[in-house]
Dipeptidase PepE (Winogradskyella pelagia), 470 residues
Amino acid sequence: MKSLIIASTSTVHGGTPLEYLLEELKIHFNDTNDILFVPYARPGGISHDDYTSSVEKAFRQIHKSIKGIHEFKNPLETLKQSKGIFVGGGNTFVLVNQLYKTKTLQPLKEAINSGIPYLGTSAGSNICGLTMNTTNDMPIVYPPSFKTLGIVPFNINPHYLDPIPNSKHMGETRETRINEFLTYNTQPVIGLREGSWIKVKGNSLKLEGGLKARIFEYGKKPYEIEDNADLNFLK
Amino acid sequence: MKSLIIASTSTVHGGTPLEYLLEELKIHFNDTNDILFVPYARPGGISHDDYTSSVEKAFRQIHKSIKGIHEFKNPLETLKQSKGIFVGGGNTFVLVNQLYKTKTLQPLKEAINSGIPYLGTSAGSNICGLTMNTTNDMPIVYPPSFKTLGIVPFNINPHYLDPIPNSKHMGETRETRINEFLTYNTQPVIGLREGSWIKVKGNSLKLEGGLKARIFEYGKKPYEIEDNADLNFLK
């Protein structure tokens, strides 16, 4: 049975990495103490080793041990045999590019579909959608495709940001950008605010974290859904 | 002699489209009343016709007439014979995709190099750099390449935004993103604040508009340059 936590962000304002999710992660990774970490998104361009160390520190609090996928000679086999997977945030273009380059995208999808518990934050959540077209990241590298895992039948916009009142900046709001996406694409988009996550358990798809989310559907006005909403209607 | 205005934005806060630039544009397009408009970036997904109409309205104030490139049977020939070119803002991915699809990128470069006065705003400025890797836009379509005109020997980040004080949002600042770009790429980046433009006249390259700009170079700390700075050092 598929089991995923697809979180908007790794860190909420004022917290330490993953802190707000730790209780949830204890349950999510209940069956294993060993989690395979995919550091490919390299936030701020840090190395795979440094990124893995920082994640190790966060997971130590709930007595889980972390190994980076880059430490293994045969990453595809390692993925298949893992008991829990975490794909961290950073830059979605860098992450997707590396997943294609290392041919990890399809094996990752198969691992998730086989029931290995998955945690994604930010870029690691974005790739659970149909495509990465609704990332907020800067396109600092050119990946071979924008197609991603398609674990959920819609696109994800992590770190969803409401318009800033009285802003004098003329750049587009997040809502404008996602509406623009829907003039070229038809799949729905969920704007996940920081602190929210999508929980996938088999065929159940739920919004969690205590916040509303914003839904964008082709030909409709964007609207809010409540915390704990069932997301199965979205396809 | 090359002649370009590469502007951060079409509109500054509280102004109407191009208003802050009109006096400058009178001089820039002094030799012609006919400007060819490239509406491919389609801000908010509006049609080429609607976009062209709105630009027509702005240019009417300085008695210039506007035709959209999409109105012509032979756009490449039209480009070559134009007396002035404006590429407007919107989504850079959409713009670059369309420039590749219509095979307009190379002819546009040749037209600019032949001395036809060019105005770019936002996405239309971004494409004057080496690549579009430092756009702020959402990747709502997948262009065949991120390579752009390379009229200037660096990359441009239009709508450059300083970090918002006391923000509780955990998404990256613009500075973080551009620094991240420089972990994968070596060309310099200029962060152009709204209200600034780069003026190109032959081999002269100058910052104008009354504001400082922020420069990002590989292996250096980002730093500010003054209004009217010569940009020829940047390569």
